[in-house]
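Notebook entry, structure prediction.
Reason for the run: the old model in the group folder had no record of what sequence produced it. Starting over properly, with the input documented here first.
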Amino acid sequence: MSIIQQHTQASLSDAWRTINIDALDPDSSQNFDTSTLHPPLPEIGEAEVRQLNAQIRQLLRGGDAEGALRGSLESPVYNGSDSAKEAHMQTVVEVLQSIKASEMTPMLQRIYGSEGGSELLDVLMKYLYKGMSGGSSGGGHKTPRTLTPQATGFSQIGSRPLASNENTGAAMSVLLSWHEKVVDVAGLGSIERVMTDWRKV
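New structure, fully documented this time:
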């Protein structure tokens, strides 16, 4: 007997909109836990991130910029505290800033040509977007925004645009340069994969 036959003609005119059809569909997301669709990500603590960042900086000091970049991209912080994510983001930006512009494309081509290279460039693109969105200030900590009353009656948030921190502008320039090179090597598909991926750095 269907759900419609169970209702009388009088109640059907008033209650037909209150029937939850999705609850009757066995394939509906209401009938199973959607969190099981994604495998659980390992929790990464701040101590692990500090240790990893120290190893990456050691590679960087040793002159192995490509190894440092690979190391920072092979272990992204997907599931961790905000401070752990920010610390790893700072290290990634530090690595990107230390690589010369002439070395970017050949290095990205070598990474892309290796096993799992497409995934690594997707992770790099995630960090680039996070950095461009203000997720990193390029080596410095974010200063809280202050509201300054002006004589004109308007209020100014933070500092004047031209008096902003030069490190932030330099970091943005580096991130934009890397974004261009990643798109040249990996194609526009990298942007699409990053935008639709549920894992966030």
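Summary: Residues 136-144, 158-164 have pLDDT under 50 and may be disordered.
The old model has been moved to the deprecated folder.
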